[in-house]
Amino acid sequence: MKRALSLLGLLIFGVQGEAVAQLSNGDFESWTNGSAAHWTIIDSGISVSETNSQVYSGSSAAAITVNTGTQSSTDFRQTVSVTRGETYDFSVWIYHTEGNVAARLYVDGYLDYSIPANTGQWQQLRYSYTAGSTTNIEVGLRFYDQPGFDGSEVVYVDRFEPSEGGTSGGASEGSGLSDLSSYYQTAEGLTGYTLKTALYNIIKDHSAQSYSDLWTFYGANELDESYENDGSILDIYSENPSGTDSYTFTPGNDQCGSYSGEGDCYNREHSFPRSWFGGAVAPMNTDVHHVFPTDGYVNGRRSSYPYGEVGSATYTSDNGSKLGSAASGLSYSGTVFEPVDAFKGDLARAYFYMATRYQNVISGWESNDIHGDAVLNGTSDQVFEDWFLAMLLQWHQEDPVSQKELDRNEDAYSFQGNRNPFVDYPEFVTEIWGQ
Question: Of 82, 225, 232, 333, which is most buried, counting CB atoms within 10 Å of its CB?
Answer without folding.
Answer: 82
